[in-house]
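Q: My labmate handed me this sequence with no annotations at all. I'd like to see what the chain might look like in three dimensions before we decide whether it's worth expressing. Could you predict it?
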Amino acid sequence: KGPYAGKLVALWLSAWNLGVVRNASDAALTAFVKRQTGLDAVAFLREAAAASAAIEALKGWIGREAGVAWGEHPDNPRRAVAEAQWRRLGEAGALMPLAFPLKPAEQLAAYARAVTGKSALDFLAEEDWDALIRALGRKLRPALKKQTETRT
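A: Here is what I predict for the chain of 152 residues:
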């Protein structure tokens, strides 16, 4: 709860679905916010400056770790997350080779169509993007774990 909780939870779940954080729980988010602001709960985050600091710190971490290009889709941060997930899946070798070549954006659109039933990325509503991000997260987290295990 709190005026900034929605944004922080959305970013935290994005970090989870990108494989940046290992724990998607509210307690883990609260610990992050406490480290950033000194406040014991997200609900206590009421000042815009402190909230902005926590939000920007989380966005910066996600951008560094997962390569999310927030500025490429300023009106649709969910698309930036999904594109980063797709890229990371490719880097982890977790994408099925296709019988015919498609650009990465076209591959993502084809996968999104399978998940949402929508014919193009431009037709996805927020709930479609959320479903797509969750589906990609279910593929990405194990792929990253396997990639890490292979390296060690």
